[in-house]
């Protein structure tokens, strides 16, 4: 019953100092740049889920969840769901719950799961009574902000490291994996 508290599990290895420094600089610089761009342009470049995106980009950058496709497309998809549901269905409790479920299903369908973006429909629908959301929200802050985060991560995650980032980019057309699997499947069918 208390096995969770006994500490029998193995904790993740403690990060090296360079990894900690990269995460500190990455999170600070990424959010600072978004805030500065917003101040200069008078357009919002930031939203709360971007803080969690920074955790993924700098603490677990080798994860599929941290790849540019996942960060950019998933923020865009889930914010679209939030605005669409708000415009069509309002902001009732069930609409909010349904919007999050829909965003998760679409993340999976489009193969771009990025957990921080799951909060986008919540941010939109829970603040709809005090914020006027238009479709331009998908550009500022969602698209431009997520692209800016990825660009900063591309710079920082490739400084003095043997593991290059990203593993894959946007993979808009076909990924190498899907082509390989298709070729393997056709090869197996021929046998």
UniProtKB/TrEMBL annotation:
InterPro entries: HPP, TM_HPP. It comes from Acinetobacter shaoyimingii. Residues 13-166 form the HPP transmembrane region domain. This is HPP family protein. It holds the Pfam family TM_HPP. The chain crosses the membrane at residues 20-38, 44-60, 72-90, 135-156. The keyword Nucleotide-binding does not apply. PANTHER family: TRANSMEMBRANE PROTEIN DDB_G0269096-RELATED. It comes from the Bacteria. Keywords: Membrane, Transmembrane, Transmembrane helix.
């Amino acid at each position: 019953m208390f096995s969770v508290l006994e500490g029998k599990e193995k904790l993740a290895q403690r990060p090296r100092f360079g990894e900690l420094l990269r995460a500190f600089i990455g999170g600070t610089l990424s959010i600072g740049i978004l805030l500065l761009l917003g101040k200069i342009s008078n357009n919002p470049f930031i939203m709360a889920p971007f803080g969690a995106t920074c955790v993924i980009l700098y603490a677990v950058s080798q994860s599929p969840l941290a790849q540019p496709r996942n960060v950019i497309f998933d923020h865009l998809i889930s914010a679209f769901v939030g605005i669409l549901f708000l415009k069509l269905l309002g902001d009732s409790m069930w609409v909010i719950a349904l919007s999050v479920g829909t965003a998760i299903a679409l993340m999976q369908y489009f193969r771009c799961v990025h957990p921080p973006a799951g909060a986008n429909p919540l941010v939109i629908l829970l603040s709809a009574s005090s914020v006027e959301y238009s479709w331009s929200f998908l550009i500022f802050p969602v698209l431009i902000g997520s692209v800016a985060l990825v660009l900063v991560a591309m710079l920082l995650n490739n400084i003095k490291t043997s593991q290059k980032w990203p593993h894959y980019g946007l993979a808009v057309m076909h990924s190498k994996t899907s082509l390989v699997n298709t070729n393997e499947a056709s090869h197996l069918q021929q046998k």
